[in-house]
Specification:
Blueprint: H1 5-18, H2 21-27, H3 50-68, E1 76-79, H4 84-93, H5 99-105, H6 107-117, H7 122-131, E2 137-143, H8 147-162, E3 166-176, E4 181-182, H9 185-189, E5 192-205, E6 218-224, E7 235-239, E8 244-249, E9 252-257, H10 261-264, E10 271-275, H11 278-281, E11 301-305, E12 316-319, H12 325-333, H13 368-379, E13 383-394, E14 404-413, H14 415-426, E15 430-432, H15 435-446, E16 451-452, E17 454-455, E18 465-468, E19 473-475, H16 479-486, H17 495-498, E20 503-505, E21 508-512, E22 516-517, H18 519-524, H19 526-529, H20 538-543, E23 547-553, H21 560-572, E24 588-594, E25 597-598, H22 615-632, E26 642-643, H23 646-671, H24 685-706, H25 710-737, H26 741-762, H27 767-778, H28 804-826, E27 835-840, H29 846-856, E28 858-863, E29 868-869, H30 875-896, E30 905-910, H31 914-922, H32 924-931, E31 933-938, E32 943-947, E33 950-958
Parallel strand pairs: 1-2, 6-9, 7-11, 15-24, 23-24, 25-26, 27-28, 30-31
Antiparallel strand pairs: 3-4, 3-14, 5-6, 5-13, 7-12, 8-9, 8-10, 14-16, 17-22, 18-19, 18-21, 20-21, 27-29, 30-33, 32-33
Helix pairs in contact: 1-27, 3-22, 4-6, 5-6, 14-15, 14-21, 22-23, 23-25, 23-26, 23-27, 24-25, 24-26, 24-28, 25-26, 26-27, 28-29, 30-31
Length: about 950
């Protein structure tokens, strides 16, 4: 009967629950030997998927291993509660279309709705986590919305503040107009998509063009892929090193970079009038493209700038200072009056009368407004050309709205100041796979920019900054501090509660600023916040910081890994570090980065396309052990993509789980015969060989686990299980069934020892079947070490059992067998037909030659110069072969009749063949023994069988019971 994975695993889950095995596995280990592991909190607003299963697996295998190494590995779950994902859900649930709708509803109502919704799928999570066999304390889970957690986040913020690492700045950055908030640069990198847009070249008519030495109207041509920014144009920038020409085309004159002429005029005919003297061009004024901001100070001039290139466009850049870093700097340098023609909601301001209130990038039809702008330009004779383009454009990672590059005020962490320390601390981290260190993560650190941490939103940890009317700022780092300043008892730190708390200090009235923190700042603070450090658990936290291990997907190199790293480095640098440390450090010593699980066809798993099996269904069919082992041995452990295949899980179920189960049930059939009173040293070569192989396995798994190489650690297990089943047990069958009592005991005690140690080695990867086998093997043993394999210590290599020679010799033996069987095949002689002699070309011990004799079915194996099989069939050998065929035929009938291994039978036969008759007579006793028959005699046949073209009828019945 195949292994009933679902049923057995559910029984074991119950057993663990009932006997509190997980709790024991933590509490039994000494408190002064901690192994600290940080769990990245997921959002409970979405359902768990394969990506979470992979991460959960790594977070289970490693702690189980270190527990068995004697460490106390506490594992507490966390929930990420704040931020846009939750807010977006409430907005759609309550049909709130804009930020203003939220304010009209009331921030208190909105936030309370978020609080309720945030743990929506916790039950589904609990079920999946449990079914996968992951051990983690979900009862005492921390939540990022708990006041203790938020208070520690304030502490982190204030420590950075005290170190001068926090500042408020006005900068161009990407905002989401729907969420009405700026996003950090790593959030922006998550949302690039190829989109269709329209680019335009607009005509800017120069005033006083005669200064360039030509008559009549001259237009400067400037190109943009964001036509909606044109109403905010206040300058045109030309490059210092670029040559410009005045060109006549269809009766008008234009200024264009020389290198761009072909492209701009698209191969049409034009004539170059002259080179532009840039001295004369710079400073020239032009007529505003749109009339709305015509009175802007120092505006509408040609200026020079070093960022202008001739890679695309006209070689002239249209400047709108509110929309882009470079633009902003030019505006500042040239003292141009401030123009912000679009609101943070992404709509034109009322001054832009022709388009007032229109969204600049409507989500439903992102080109609609650009088309309107282009129509206006064409109507007013200011359009030179337009073109459809496809380019990569950033979108909001939460709501998919196209982002706007927009100058606004935000709070920042000065990451650029920390860069050198971030790079130094990265060197102390062991990455799996190794290339992440200098590659994906290292490169990201080298390009690190200041981190925009404020969000103009509602559901998050508020920035603990209070401002006076005249702009003085106070940063508050604890609940107590706020209570002392305000005299108000504070029980909740959410925005709708604390925004009402105002206070006076030194005669000035202070009010909190509006923003909340980026939720990535909160998840980066989890090492401290989950323990409410430094307000509680001070000694315990400090003893376990930094953590030994974390694991997540590769996208976190720009997310959680990064924010953990930035905050830990910031908190540990300087002469007076916030956490007592001799040297600045990272937040973690070892990290495993997993890849992405794709559908079998290599595409992204898509709920809509249903191109992947439901994880729970796969678990029901093949069990969590098979799923775990399949994932643990896959490339996904090396940050590579995995095309998930249910067939792959099935293969693991067959080759590892079910094969091991068959070995175990075989052991159980005989285990009651085991005496176990004294351990004698076996002299059987198969026993010595499997014990030596076991030592190799233990050594290999241990070394790779110590290096966090989960795939390399788990892969050798399958090979071992197959060798155990297909060689050790198969070759030892006769020993278990045989009459040599001592050899039987050797075989039984060896197999028990192998199963026991194997169950320990497999425990971190396949915890269910490991438990099943451990308990089964121990069940009739009086001195049980413990009642779970997971409470055991990790096995050590027994040096005296390491025997490389025997492993080598067995490889030779198996090679001889394989080649000899080929010789039989060539000679067309079935393996069941015994042969007299095999000559082998290897020097092997008696025991090994015996194995070869049995496998190849020859009477003797002798050593010689070359491999040779004596294929001569004597009368005796022929008869013996026939005898074996008869035994096989009878056993086949036994099987078909559903008789058990133990039940005795009586056999009758009838045949006309003289040779067969003779065999029955000659081997009567031997056949009876091998088919467990009471009687074997000539009589009436029943089932017709054919043996070497000889006809025979057999009648096999259960033997009558004589009472
Ligand atoms: Zn958004």
């Amino acid at each position: 009967m195949p292994y009933q994975a679902d049923q057995h695993e559910k029984e074991i889950l119950e057993y663990w629950d009932k006997n509190k095995i997980f709790e024991k596995s933590v509490n039994d280990r000494p408190e002064d030997k901690p192994y600290v592991f940080y769990d990245g909190p997921p959002f409970a607003t979405g359902l768990p998927h394969y990506g979470h299963i992979v991460a959960g697996l790594m977070k289970d295998v490693v702690p189980r291993y270190w527990t068995m190494q004697g460490y106390r590995v506490e594992r507490v779950w966390g929930w990420d509660c704040h931020g846009l994902p939750v807010e977006n859900i409430i907005e759609s649930d309550l049909k709130l279309k804009s930020k203003k709708d939220i304010e009209d509803l009331g921030i208190d109502k909105f936030n309370e709705a978020c609080r309720v919704a945030v743990l929506k799928y916790t039950e589904e999570w609990r079920r999946t986590v449990k079914r996968m066999g992951r051990w983690v304390d979900m009862e005492h889970a921390y939540k990022t919305m708990d006041i203790e957690y938020m208070e520690s986040v304030w502490w982190v913020f204030k420590e950075l503040w005290n170190k001068g690492l926090i500042y408020e700045g006005y900068k161009a950055m990407h905002i989401c107009p729907r969420c009405v908030t700026p996003l950090s640069n790593f959030e922006v990198t998550q949302g690039y998509k190829d989109v269709k847009d329209i680019s335009v070249i607009a005509k800017f008519k120069l005033k006083n063009a005669e200064k360039l030495g030509v008559d009549g109207d001259v237009f400067v041509l400037a190109w943009t892929t964001t036509p909606w920014t044109l109403p905010g144009n206040v300058a045109l920038a030309i490059g210092d090193d670029i040559e410009y020409k005045i060109v006549e085309f269809e009766g008008a004159k234009f200024v264009v970079a020389k290198e761009r002429l072909q492209e701009v005029f698209e191969g049409k005919e034009y004539s170059v009038l002259q080179k532009v003297d840039k001295k004369n061009l710079i400073g020239l004024e032009y007529e505003p493209l749109f009339p709305y901001f015509a009175n802007t100070e120092n505006a509408f001039r040609v200026v020079s700038a070093d960022f202008v290139t001739t890679g695309e466009g006209t070689g002239v850049v249209h400047i709108a200072p509110a929309f882009g870093d470079d633009d902003y700097e030019v505006g500042k340098r040239e003292n141009i009056g401030w123009v912000h023609h679009v609101t943070m909601e992404g709509k034109f301001v009322p001054e832009v009368v022709d388009f007032a209130e229109k969204e600049v990038k409507p989500k439903e039809d992102t080109m609609a407004t650009d088309v309107e702008i282009i129509k206006w330009l064409a109507h007013n004779n200011k359009l030179f050309s337009k073109k459809k383009i496809e380019h990569s454009y950033p979108h909001c990672w939460r709501c998919d709205t196209p982002l706007l590059n927009y100058a606004t005020s935000s709070w920042f962490v000065k990451v650029t100041d920390l860069k050198a320390d971030l790079i130094t601390n990265n060197k102390k981290i062991e990455w799996v796979p190794e290339h992440m260190k200098e590659g994906r993560f290292g490169k990201w650190l080298e390009g690190a920019r200041d981190w925009a941490i404020s969000r103009n939103r509602f559901w998050g940890t508020p920035l603990p900054v209070w401002k006076s009317e005249d702009g003085d700022v106070l940063c508050i780092g604890s609940v107590e501090e706020l209570e002392e300043l305000s005299g108000v008892k504070v029980k909740d730190l959410h925005k709708h509660i604390i925004d009402d708390i105002e206070f006076e200090k030194d005669g000035k009235k202070y009010k909190r600023i509006e923003e909340v923190l980026d939720c990535w700042f909160e998840s980066g603070s989890m090492p401290y916040a989950q323990m409410h450090y430094p307000f509680e658990n001070k000694a315990k936290f400090e003893a376990g910081f930094p953590s030994e291990f974390i694991a997540e997907g590769q996208d976190q190199t720009r997310g959680w890994f990064y924010t953990l790293h930035v905050l830990a480095t910031a908190l540990t640098i300087g002469d007076a570090p916030s956490i007592p440390k001799d040297k600045s450090c990272a937040a973690f010593n070892n990290v495993i980065v997993n890849g992405i699980v794709l559908a079998e066809d290599g595409k992204k798993m898509s709920k809509r396309l249903k191109n992947y099996p439901d994880p729970m269904e796969v678990l029901e069919k093949y069990g969590a052990d098979a799923m775990r082992y399949y994932l643990a041995t896959s490339a996904v452990m090396h940050a590579e993509n995995l095309n998930f295949s249910q067939d792959g899980v099935r293969e693991v179920y067959n080759k590892v789980v079910n094969t091991l189960w068959n070995v175990f049930t075989f052991y159980q059939m005989f285990s009651h015969e085991e005496t176990r009173n004294k351990k004698q040293e076996t002299n059987n070569v198969l026993d010595k060989w499997i014990m030596a192989k076991l030592q190799v396995l233990v050594a290999e798994v241990t070394e790779n686990m110590n290096n966090y190489k989960l795939a390399e650690a788990s892969r050798p297990i399958m090979e071992f299980v197959l060798e155990l089943s297909q060689w050790y047990v198969r070759r030892s069958r006769g020993r278990f069934k045989g009459d040599d009592e001592q050899d039987k005991q050797f075989a039984l005690s060896t197999l028990r020892e192998v199963l026991l140690i194997l169950s320990k080695v497999m425990a971190p990867f396949t915890p269910f079947i490991a438990e099943k086998i451990y308990m089964g093997v121990n069940s009739n043993q009086s001195s049980v070490n413990s009642n779970s394999v997971h409470l055991e210590m990790w096995p050590e290599v027994s040096k005296d059992l390491v025997d490389e020679e025997i492993i080598e010799q067995m490889i030779l033996t198996r090679k001889v067998v394989e080649e000899s069987l080929f010789l039989r095949k060539d000679a067309k002689i079935k393996v069941r037909q015994p042969l007299q002699k095999l000559t082998i070309d290897k020097k092997l011990s008696d025991g090994l030659r015996e194995i070869i004799a049995e496998e190849v079915n020859v009477k003797e194996v002798v050593e010689g110069k070359k491999l040779e099989l004596d294929t001569e069939l004597t009368k005796e050998l022929k008869n013996e072969g026939l005898m074996r065929e008869i035994v096989r035929a009878v056993n086949q009938i036994r099987k078909e009749k559903g008789l058990t291994r133990e039940s005795k039978v009586s056999v009758e036969y009838s045949t006309d063949d003289v040779e067969l008759k003779a065999v029955f007579e000659e081997f009567n006793e031997e056949i009876k023994k091998q088919v467990l028959a009471d009687s074997l005699k000539e009589g009436v046949g029943e089932t017709e069988v054919e043996i070497n073209q000889k006809k025979l009828k057999l009648k096999v019945n259960p033997a009558p019971l004589f009472l």
